[in-house]
Amino acid sequence: MRMLRHKATKAERHEQIRRILRAHRVSTQQELAERLLGAGISATQATLSRDLAELGVLRVSRPEGALYEIEAVSARANPQLTELGETILSLRENSALVVLRTRPGMASAVALAVDNARLPGCLGTLAGDDTIFAAPARGVPTRRLAQQIKNLFAREIA
User: Cβ(150)–Cβ(157) under 8 Å?
Assistant: First the structure.
C-alpha cells in the first residue's frame, strides 16, 4: 500500500476515480475507497458518494453483478448540450416520472438529447411542446434519473 502523499484535491480525487473506473470493475464504494487508498488518496464514504454523483457515476445492474460506470455523454464533453440545457426551465420528480418543463417548442429537442445519451436509468421519454415525461428504467429511483439528466446537461435545474 502506498503512503498518502498529501491531502488530495477534489480534482485529483475525481481524476483518480475516473482512472479506477475505466481500468477496473468496481462494484462497491468500499472497493473504490480501497483502490483510491492504494493510489495514495484517502476518502470517506460520504465524500465518495458526493464525488460519484458529481461525476455522473451510476451503479448499473449487469448480469455479472452491479458495477459503477461513468456516464459517457455530458455537457462537459458536448457544448451543444450546455446550450440545449439552457432551455430547460424546471425538473421535478415524483415516485413514477421525472417531468421537465422547457421553453415553448424545445421539449422534443431536449427529449431527443436525453434519449440519444442512452442514460442507463432512463427507459424513455415522451415530449410535447414544452413538457417532457422521462420514465425511469425498472428499479431506478426517479431521484437518480433526475440526477442523471442534470449531469447530462451539466447544470443545476430548479
Answer: yes
